[in-house]
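// run 5 | inverse folding | seed 20
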């Protein structure tokens, strides 16, 4: 059933149906390859999670990712086509392979291109549809970035991951992998409470980068990043400061005061593509207006996902089946709060993969529930009801 092939100095032990592997990317969790699926005749992406239980950070992430990929079904979120492990016992268990739809490039590559308004607004619309769908399952991403968004040459877009777990985790164990934080909202950087529109900040950063061609707030660390934000957008109001934890507040309040720049100055006309001749609302002025509503430091004054979807620059693409797709089953956040040893994670992840494999292959893992008992005959007793 399985064979082994070496790609990008990594051994892939995969089902025979997947052929012609070529490396296409790598992330914190491992290497991603493209492959030809000889059973479906489709090209696919295969991600190898090498020893996902190697430490609790990796394990939690892999487990959550896998659970959520199984739960969510929306055209703007990457879909799982298959998952398997080549090892057949818990003792031998090492690696998980996730088979996904294959896309052509990630957004880092697309941002470098000169996009016209049609393409830019359509990409943003799809991001917003995907985000809205995640929100409908109670998943607030908080870590959207171009490397985790993939596109096809026909301009379709999918979000690849599910962001940060609700409980504060540490990415320390992910070293030497460098975590990109440029797109994280002020409330994430400053450790404040957050709501759905935390993800709109990231969309704003991505849109701004599409226009400017460079990262808007490339901080070397949280402090540097905060400086880059306020230098451009200005020091936030005293009401915002009041919502900060005392230690953070004293740092933030003691920074020099910046007035920030107007959006016409931050994103001058010359940076935008020519206004659309087909859609009257796809203009530099509308694009800048949307940007100025997403890149707002104070989350209470920032636009919401629904408002963004209804913005003139976006709503040209409105389709109820995409915007208002039925919500997935709500996500059980207790998963994020679970603390386990590495051995327990190993077993949990192994079980999860086995469950997926058997469900997919139509095996019956549990005996069917017995038929309900026949209704009892009318009560004869005279005693008190219990
Ligand atoms: P990840 O490990 O999920 O962070 O993915 C790392 C990189 O692999 C991404 O930035 C993409 O460039 C690429 N990639 C991952 N999944 C896919 C996919 N389904 N289609 C195309 N490229 C992908």
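// decoded
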């Amino acid at each position: 059933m399985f064979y082994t092939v070496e790609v990008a100095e990594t051994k892939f032990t995969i089902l025979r149906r997947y052929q012609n592997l070529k490396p296409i990317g790598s992330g914190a969790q491992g290497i991603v390859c493209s492959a030809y699926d000889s059973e479906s005749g489709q090209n696919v992406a295969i991600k190898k999670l090498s020893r996902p239980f190697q430490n609790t950070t990796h394990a939690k992430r892999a487990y959550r990712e896998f659970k959520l990929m199984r739960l969510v079904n929306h055209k703007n979120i990457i879909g799982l086509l298959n998952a398997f492990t080549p090892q057949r016992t818990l003792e031998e268990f090492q690696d998980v392979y996730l088979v996904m739809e294959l896309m052509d490039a990630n957004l880092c590559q697309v941002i470098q291109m000169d996009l016209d308004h049609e393409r830019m607004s359509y990409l943003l619309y799809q991001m917003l549809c995907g985000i809205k769908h995640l929100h409908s399952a109670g998943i607030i991403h908080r870590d959207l970035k171009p490397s985790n968004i993939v596109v096809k040459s026909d301009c379709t877009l999918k979000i690849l991951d599910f962001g940060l777990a609700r409980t504060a985790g540490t990415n320390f164990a992910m070293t030497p992998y460098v975590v990109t934080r440029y797109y994280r909202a002020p409330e994430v950087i400053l450790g404040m409470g957050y709501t759905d529109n935390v993800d709109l900040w990231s969309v704003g950063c991505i849109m701004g980068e599409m226009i400017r061609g460079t990262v808007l707030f490339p901080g070397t660390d949280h402090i540097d990043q905060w400086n880059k934000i306020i230098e451009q957008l200005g020091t936030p109001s005293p009401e915002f400061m009041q919502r900060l934890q005392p230690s953070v507040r004293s740092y933030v309040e003691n920074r020099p005061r910046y007035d920030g720049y107007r959006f016409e100055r931050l994103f001058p006309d010359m940076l935008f593509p020519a206004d659309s001749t087909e859609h009257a609302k796809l203009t530099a002025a509308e694009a800048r207006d949307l940007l100025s509503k997403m890149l707002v430091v104070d989350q209470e004054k920032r636009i919401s996902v629904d408002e963004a979807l209804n913005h003139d620059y976006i709503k040209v693409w409105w389709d109820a089946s995409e915007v208002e797709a039925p919500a997935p089953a709500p996500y059980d956040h207790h998963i994020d709060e679970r603390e386990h040893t590495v051995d327990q994670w190993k077993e949990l992840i192994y079980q999860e993969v086995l469950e997926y494999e058997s469900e997919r292959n139509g095996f019956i893992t549990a005996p069917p529930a017995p038929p309900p008992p026949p209704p009892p005959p009318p009560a004869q007793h005279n005693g008190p009801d219990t």
